[in-house]
Automatic annotation (TrEMBL):
Belongs to the peroxiredoxin family. AhpC/Prx1 subfamily. GO terms for biological process: cell redox homeostasis; cellular response to stress; hydrogen peroxide catabolic process; response to oxidative stress. It comes from Sporanaerobacter acetigenes DSM 13106. Gene3D superfamilies: Antioxidant, Horf6, Chain A, domain2 (3.30.1020.10), Glutaredoxin (3.40.30.10). One of its GO terms (molecular function) is thioredoxin peroxidase activity. This is AhpC/TSA family protein. Thiol-specific peroxidase that catalyzes the reduction of hydrogen peroxide and organic hydroperoxides to water and alcohols, respectively. Plays a role in cell protection against oxidative stress by detoxifying peroxides.
Amino acid sequence: MGLSIDSNSSHLAWVYNIYQNTGVQIPFPIISDRDGSISRMYGMFSPVTGSTTTVRNVFFIDPNQIIRAILIYPLTNGRNTNEMLRLLIALQTSDMAKVATPANWYPGQPVVVPAPQTYEELLRRVEGEEGLCCVDWYLCYKDLP
């Protein structure tokens, strides 16, 4: 969803302008936060400018209402949609498969398996646990189906 301190009329004009100029229809709701109460709650106003100058925050909030990641883009720089999608898929992959995604990870690449919690698990890794590619006993990768 989108959130802005602009009015509902402004949002309608903005969404329609995007459609007119690009053919893209915005598929998510945009909430008007005229008094800035929601924006303040999430720290969305720029402490640098000390005003309501636009700061483009992207929040990833899970179904349990926990903020999992925040990307902050200044007014002068556009957002990276590919990175937002990559991060969303990485969060979903980590949750689903109980793994971590390494730096620069993209879907289809190997994921990091959590470190062993017992000495027996450590020994299985050292002995070459099937399906894992290990750099060392604590750092192993695997491919997801």
